């Protein structure tokens, strides 16, 4: 891949969409004559993408310093080339390239110059996560960077899957999506920053100092997030405490990398997966559904109450987890888990998938428990109500995240996660 920078004059063209993928570009070109310019992974190759009467066409623009060439037409810059095509129509393979409306970037398409980021706060499957700021509003953000070694067609496709679904959501218990950045390398996702890090890190760091009512509240908030997602027709497929983040005491579902907007999604069982959170019936046919998310939620409930924090079935290898859960073995409810929460956890993990509560029911049941545990809280908007006493300040949280080796731990965890496979 070329390491060259995209020329500033190209970047600033309102209709320059950088590495926008074909399927996303095609969606934006609605009427005949709608057009934009994109860039493939090598920046010297740009494409003019235009909707013509017979469909979408992609024409290669050769970009060299001081020239932009399409077919027989050559001008000094892309903008001049486009303007010339508008006034003096070019014909390629018997088809006239009629350009009518330049399609500008959408509201989720940000540019590198819109963000500032430096401090690393996390690491995941395909990238590194940083804390940063939006230049325009000074709002604190998290930036998920596609690492250079993953910045190929497949890596970009993964990143854009996450961006496409996240654009559709707006809920207090789902991490807010600000946008994606494809105008130049590195490719980025821009998200709401969560000052408390992941729930898993919080459970590890706070141990028994995290009260049972707070744990119940976390569980309830996560259920509100999952209920919203399911109502939007989306299976998360990676529900676990590591993928729930906390911001000012509010739990938010995050990491939509595996999420699918469908009611059944058949997964490739030959690829590594999160065996410990995987509903056992998935081994039969590879099908993940809303009720397999509910099973994973049950395992996450166990994580939320086990003190000190432990990986589910820590003493077992992945293969053993698979064998034992398929023959009916289940994690016993942790000692700190109130009985009624334990009963809900068992229902979520029961073998008969269709008997598991759906997310809405689960949310209602947990709301009941939450009300009992926190009698002074009003339930209206209770997903937003944080028990103040148990929450550290934003500042101390960020400091601990950066100073106490959390990153190293994260890297070790990711390594462990990737060892867990089919087994
Ligand atoms: N919006 C955010 N705010 C704060 N920290 C975040 C945010 N997004 C991710 N992180 C940190 O980065 C880690 C990896 O992010 P995640 O989205 O789970 O990536 P992956 O898909 O690679 O697992 C998280 O566990 C968390 O510690
Ligand atoms: Mg993750």
Automatic annotation (TrEMBL):
Binding residue positions for ATP: 145
Alphabetized InterPro entries for the sequence: Kinase-like_dom_sf, Non-receptor_tyrosine_kinases, Prot_kinase_dom, Protein_kinase_ATP_BS, Ser-Thr/Tyr_kinase_cat_dom, SH2, SH2_dom_sf, Tyr_kinase_AS
Biased composition (Basic and acidic residues): 409-423
Pfam families: PK_Tyr_Ser-Thr (PF07714)
Catalysed transformations (reactions): L-tyrosyl-[protein] + ATP = O-phospho-L-tyrosyl-[protein] + ADP + H(+)
Domain of life: Eukaryota
Alphabetical list of PROSITE patterns matching this protein: PROTEIN_KINASE_ATP, PROTEIN_KINASE_DOM, PROTEIN_KINASE_TYR
Cross-referenced Gene3D superfamilies: Phosphorylase Kinase, domain 1, SH2 domain, Transferase(Phosphotransferase) domain 1
Entry keyword set: ATP-binding, Kinase, Nucleotide-binding, Transferase, Tyrosine-protein kinase
GO molecular function list: ATP binding; non-membrane spanning protein tyrosine kinase activity; protein tyrosine kinase activity
Region (Disordered): 364-423
Family annotation (CDD domains): PTKc (cd00192)
SMART domains assigned: SH2, TyrKc
Polar residues bias locations: 373-399
EC id: 2.7.10.2
Domain Protein kinase: from-to ranges: 115-370
Cellular compartments per GO CC: plasma membrane
Family: Belongs to the protein kinase superfamily. Tyr protein kinase family.
Protein name per the record: Tyrosine-protein kinase
